Amino acid sequence: MTGDRPGAAGPARRTLRQKIAAWFTALYHHHPGLVVIGGPMLLLTALILLFGLVTDNTPKPCPPGKVCDFVR
Fold first, then answer.
1. Contacts of 19 (CB under 8 A, 6+ apart)
2. What is the DSSP letter of 29?
3. Residue 14 burial (10 A CB sphere; 0-12, 13-18, 19+)
4. How far apart are CA 51 and CA 55, in angstroms?
5. Residue 41 domain flag
6. How many domains does the chain contain in total?
């Protein structure tokens, strides 16, 4: 890649982690708008997933003497 340090490993000898880091660095270097939009979107997604895992979505039992969700 251009701009590499002298003596650095060539593109074929980089680890997967180094390749991914270089890809993200190039992406955000050329498109700073992705940081502005992608950061809050990632945070919102994480909060939605966390909220979904924390909330209890099990149906509540019907109390005795009351007809719940009755359909004719």
1. 11
2. H
3. middle
4. 6
5. yes
6. 1
pTM for the whole thing? 0.43
- Each residue's pLDDT tens digit in the chain (72 positions)? 555 666 666 667 788 888 888 887 877 676 777 778 888 999 999 999 998 888 877 777 888 878 787 666
Please calculate the CA angle 42-45-46 and round it to the nearest 5 degrees: 85
The answer to whether the beta carbons of residues 51 and 45 sit under 8 Å apart is no
Structural domain of 39: 11-54
Q: Has residue 42 been placed in a domain?
A: yes
Q: Is residue 45 part of a domain?
A: yes
